[in-house]
Structures are given as C-alpha cells and as structure tokens.
Amino acid sequence: VQLQASGGGLVQAGESLRLSCAASGFTFSSYTMAWFRQAPGKEREFVTVISRSGGTTFTANSVKGRFTISRDNAKNTVYLQMNMLKPEDSAVYFCAADQEGTGLILSKRNREDVGKYEYWGQGTLVTVSS
Predict the structure, then answer these.
(1) What's the half-sphere exposure (Cβ side, CA atoms, 13 Å) at 71?
(2) 24, exposed or middle or buried, with CB in 10 Å at 0-12, 13-18, 19+?
(3) Nearest alpha carbon to residue 7 among 107, 74, 80, 69
(4) Which residue of 52, 53, 112, 118 has the lowest C-beta tally within 10 Å?
C-alpha cells in the first residue's frame, strides 16, 4: 500500500496550490479519503474528507470556502485544491485512507480522528509566505 502526496511548495499569501495523492496497493474506490495537516509543534489536524464515490465531502471551518477536495477513481488519485492561501495554512499535508464508509465520514468525531484512518502518505510541505 502506498499513498504518494505531491504538489507542495512555497507560495505567497493569496496564491493557490493543488496537492495530489496517488494511491496504489488497494482498491482506491472502496476507501474514504482525507487530507490532514500538521504545522511545526502542533498536532495533526483534519482538513477535509471525501466519500468513496466523491459525492459527499466535509471540510474544516478553518479552510471552508478556500479548499476543495476531489477524487478521480479511474486514476486512483485524490486532490486538494487550495485557494487564497494564508500563512497559517503552512504545514505538512498528509493524505489518509480508510475502508470505513458511512460510519467514518458521517461522524464528525470519527472523520476528524487521525486514529480512524488505516493508511497514510508521507506528506508534502506547503509554505505560505506573507
């Protein structure tokens, strides 16, 4: 199993980035996918999640309206489009996967719990300068 995140980089405040996470080694379309992030000295925090079909998403209030998650099950890839980036968005961004469906994504406590996700990528660094 592998989750390969990419697309991070250094940008200025107000700019955009699109992160990708390519999955292999499991049946991608059967897994709920999520993005988390971790800033230096802070705990890993939930950003957004998408259901297996892509029809349901939930996003943290801190990024709502600026970040959008999507997936392409034919390409085994999940994306995170980040617009209007702010310095406080600077972090290592991780993609995560779990086979649980409704029970995971419809429960706020579950979908935001790092312990609920079975597979994790290695992370990609996003730095936003002011």
Answers:
(1) 27
(2) exposed
(3) 80
(4) 53
Residues sharing a CB contact under 8 Å with residue 120, sequence separation 6 or more, in sequence order: 3, 94, 95, 96, 97
In whole angstroms, give the CA distance from residue 63 to residue 81: 11
What token pair was written down for 78?
């999940």
Question: How far from chain centre, in Å, is Cα 31?
Answer: 13
Q: What is the pLDDT of residues 74-102, one digit of tens each?
A: 999 999 999 999 999 999 999 999 999 99
**19, amino acid identity:** L
3-class state of residue 39 by DSSP:
coil
- Comparing C-alpha atoms, which of 44, 86, 51, 91 is closest to residue 69? 51
